[in-house]
Design goal:
Largest sheet: 9 strands, mixed
Number of helices: 5
Mean pLDDT: 94
CATH superfamily of the largest domain: D-amino Acid Aminotransferase, subunit A, domain 2
Order of helices and strands: EHHEEEHEEEEHEEEEH
Strand content: 25-35%
CATH architecture of the largest domain: Alpha-Beta Barrel
Distance between the termini: 47 Å
Number of strands: 12
Number of domains: 2
Low-confidence stretches: 1-8
Length: 223
């Protein structure tokens, strides 16, 4: 039987938010990393990976990026993007399932670059069957008659740390929907680096705000 890990030559990544030197979701990131290691058959991370992340985080607000390749971890950091309401376009880039966070991110890079050329902040990718999937580095949610929805994990979307946190905070329904189903809905994006961020515009049209998004955002980070 061929080793599945051969398909992940580029490696696995985790991007982790440091808040005042704390890494509130580190345990979840490492659990997801190890789950991908097991599923894909790649070499385990070193035992001191958590210590490396803490050292890199320092005492401030940073993004810590871990890249696992052949059992070795490279750690880098960058500033946190502070944009709080974003304009999003629907990408022409065909979405391919991304259930593990690998560095094979070409589809997202192309979608983001094309979105920026139009003046948007980011892009939303859609499956070959026309279903809303995920953004270039985030999961998407929308409100429908007071209930938050998100694309079904069975579409192959990344099981994001931020996504799972929102699903802990409130009753979320998973769905397969076309882009047209988002018309007139209040939308927000989430990832474990930026938390919850409202989408202000989709395809050039203003998006209605929902106060429940701000309520979720205030509860997103643990004390």
């Amino acid at each position: 039987m061929p080793r599945v890990g051969a398909m992940v030559e580029a490696g696995l990544i985790e991007t982790i938010r440091a808040r005042e030197g704390r890494l509130p979701w580190l345990g979840r990131h490492l659990a997801r990393l190890r789950a991908s290691v097991a599923a894909l058959g790649v070499a385990e991370p070193p035992g001191d990976v958590a210590d490396l992340a803490h050292i890199a985080a320092g005492a401030g607000d940073r993004v810590v990026r871990l890249e696992l390749r052949d059992g070795h971890v490279e750690v880098t950091t960058r500033d946190v993007n502070a944009e709080r309401a974003v304009a999003v376009v629907v990408s022409d880039e065909l979405y391919r399932p991304y259930p593990h966070k690998t560095t094979r991110r070409e589809q997202f890079g192309r979608a983001l670059a094309n979105a920026r050329r139009t003046g948007a902040h980011d892009a939303l990718l859609v499956t070959a069957d026309g279903y809303v999937a995920e953004g270039t580095s985030w999961n998407v949610f929308w409100w429908d008659h007071g209930t938050p929805y998100t694309p079904a994990e069975e579409l192959g979307v990344l099981p994001g740390i931020g996504r799972s946190r929102v699903m802990e905070l409130t009753g979320v329904k998973e769905a397969r929907v076309p882009v047209s189903a988002l018309a007139g809905r209040s939308l927000f994006l989430v990832n474990a680096v930026r938390g919850i961020v409202e989408i202000a515009m989709l395809q050039g049209a203003a998006i209605p705000r929902d106060p429940r998004t701000a309520e979720l955002s205030s509860s997103f980070w643990p004390d």
